[in-house]
Design goal:
Butyryl-Coa Dehydrogenase, subunit A, domain 1, Butyryl-CoA Dehydrogenase, subunit A, domain 3, 3 domains, 8-stranded mixed beta sheet, two-stranded antiparallel ribbon, 52% helix, globular
Length: 573
């Protein structure tokens, strides 16, 4: 039986998207399904570069159609940067394997500085390369500095003719082996400070571009490369000065979102496989899924996965409706990166606890999912970096709401061009939000939503009466626990907004908030044990541990949705 909330390759038809988008997404699914599971598994284990997938994408014009803004599409009405359909493709690619998603993801990142640039020659070249089927790369991080863009050692020396000669290395750069265009961040050797930053376009095929190696033991190619006296012409320069710094951060703002949908796709495929295996296995004369602890783990995994999808789908709307006067997406973006991807790890762990040794078998998809799901929380900033970013929004979000028009569901075929004119990457603490309580009030009749709302109100009371003092504000270990509590409130808000607009089954929604009540209680217990917590904060923490409202009939109805996944999908051999 097919679950309408989960991606199902055989029944997928995104009716809310335009005809061309639907055709290309369907073609992508059909390519993987025709190729089959054996080829998918064998190429993964052989660490085989996915040239066949890139050939398919080039032949179909997949990346060119999805990743060329309308302004650069030469009047092709199907070309646009559409976050809704990009999210759909990202989920599909994650469903079949992280490597296929990764080559797409780093192409997104590589294009970010280009589409933010006012350089017409570079933009035209990028559009032409996409039409030819090329992928792109994002040359930001370095071996000695990671993604610390304040400390880049990629040096550009003026050549006296309006250009530069670039020398230096980049590390952990996806697609760096074949990228037709690599957006490279560096600094001028003759200019100190932010004014010296430069973003420029390089070509991996140039003789002065030296590919050193693949730095990971995987199917994907994550390169180390060096530029040796590489000629950077004036038409190759994308950004200079502080604008180059802003382009780096704003590119990550765009590309970071894709990590949540990749995580969702991985979890969906793993869930089909795990539930089918568990439901068909007999132990001690009983079906494995008849054991109470197995039902709880699988029900929790399913509810967490649905919550991931609800939050991410609603975040798409805020991205697409963003503008200079509405930058709320800058909170929801690190939430998708930090919260959704770590929830993905929990989903896979719960499934793995059920299927146990089966999860190690080489001919399963699950074996790949268990490895690959770990990477997503660690890309485009660690969990800790994104939690620290989320904390910047907390005062205005909790205490100073303002009115906004309701953001509608956005699946219209529009070009999300604001993402490439985000402006200076600062002022996060000044961004205002609509009242988070409204979404909770609309669902206050659900017992666990009401119980979680008590905990959320308690967090507001804690911060009003016993806010972190100056010493605690310098203690990131302490603050990150506060950040986890706050993140749950934001997570719940968008889940409720999406549930309201889609008419989500109330049993399932209350089961999701059963989880959130437990999660809040877990972080409150952690806060109680922190050495930095004051007596008042520790007392608050214990006072806000809550038991979810138990409803055995509700949980049984949600369990039936999980049981119905058994045998619902298996990839063609």
């Amino acid at each position: 039986m097919s679950d309408p909330l989960l991606f199902h390759p055989h029944r997928y038809d995104p009716a809310d998207l335009d005809e061309t988008s639907r055709r290309l997404l369907r073609a992508t699914i059909d390519w993987f399904e025709t190729r089959g599971k054996r080829a998918l598994v064998d190429s993964y284990h052989a660490r085989e570069w996915y040239a066949d997938f890139l050939d398919f994408a080039a032949r179909e014009g997949l990346f060119a159609t999805f990743l060329t803004p309308a302004a650069d599409g030469a009047d092709d009405k199907d070309k646009r940067w559409d976050t809704a359909r990009n999210a759909a493709l990202s989920e599909i690619l994650g469903f079949y394997g992280l490597g296929y998603w990764y080559t797409w993801q780093v192409t997104v990142l590589g294009l970010g500085p280009v589409w933010q640039s006012g350089n017409p020659a570079a933009r035209a070249r990028a559009a032409e390369l996409l039409d030819q089927g090329h992928v792109m790369a994002f040359g930001l991080s370095e071996r000695a500095h990671g993604a610390d863009i304040y400390a880049t050692d990629m040096l550009l020396t003026p050549d006296g003719e309006g250009g530069f000669r670039a020398t230096g290395g980049k590390y952990y750069i996806g697609n760096g082996n074949v990228a037709g265009l690599v957006s490279v961040f560096g600094r001028r050797a003759d200019v100190d400070g932010p004014e010296g930053y430069v973003f420029f376009a390089a070509d991996s095929r140039h003789p002065a571009y030296r590919l050193v190696r693949n730095v990971v033991n995987a199917q994907m190619y994550v390169s180390e490369f060096r530029l040796e006296d590489y000629p950077v012409r004036a038409e190759d320069v994308l950004h200079t000065g502080p604008a180059a710094f802003d382009a780096a951060l704003n590119t990550v703002n765009v590309g970071k979102f894709n990590l949540c949908t990749a995580s969702i796709g991985i979890c969906e495929h793993a869930m089909y496989e795990a539930v089918t295996h568990a439901h068909g296995r007999m132990l001690y004369g009983r079906r494995v899924t008849d054991f109470p602890h197995v039902r709880r783990e699988l029900t929790d995994a399913y509810a967490r996965l649905v919550a991931m999808k609800l939050f991410s789908d609603r975040a798409v709307d805020y991205f697409r409706s963003a503008g200079p006067d509405d930058r709320r997406y800058l909170l929801f973006n690190p939430m998708t990166k930090m919260k959704v991807t770590t929830e993905g790890e929990k989903v896979v762990d719960l499934l793995w606890d059920v299927i146990a040794a089966k999860g190690f078998e080489a001919d399963t998809y699950f074996d790949k999912a268990a490895k690959d799901i770990r990477g997503l929380p660690k890309l485009e900033g660690t969990v800790h970096v994104n939690l620290a970013l989320i904390l910047k929004f907390m005062p205005n979000y909790l205490f100073r709401p303002q009115s906004y028009p309701t953001v509608p569901a956005r699946r219209d075929p529009a070009d999300d061009e604001f993402l490439f004119r985000q402006g200076p990457a600062r002022g996060l603490g000044a961004i205002r939000f609509h009242d988070w309580r409204a979404a909770y009030d609309a669902h206050a009749h659900l017992p666990n939503v009401a119980r979680f709302r008590e905990q959320a109100d308690g967090l507001v009371a804690l911060l009003a009466a016993h806010a972190p003092d100056e010493t605690q504000q310098r203690d990131l270990d302490f603050l990150l626990t506060i950040g986890q509590l706050f993140a749950l409130v934001v997570y719940g808000q968008l889940i409720l907004e999406q549930a309201g607009s889609t008419g989500l089954d109330t049993d399932l929604l209350d089961e999701i908030f059963d989880l959130l009540v437990r999660d809040f209680s877990g972080y409150a217990t952690e806060l109680h044990g922190k050495p930095a917590s004051t007596d008042e904060q520790a007392a608050w923490a214990l006072a806000h541990v809550r038991r979810p409202v138990v409803d055995a009939d509700r949980t049984a109805r949600v369990w039936q949705r999980v049981a119905d996944l058994a045998g619902a999908y298996e990839m063609r051999p």
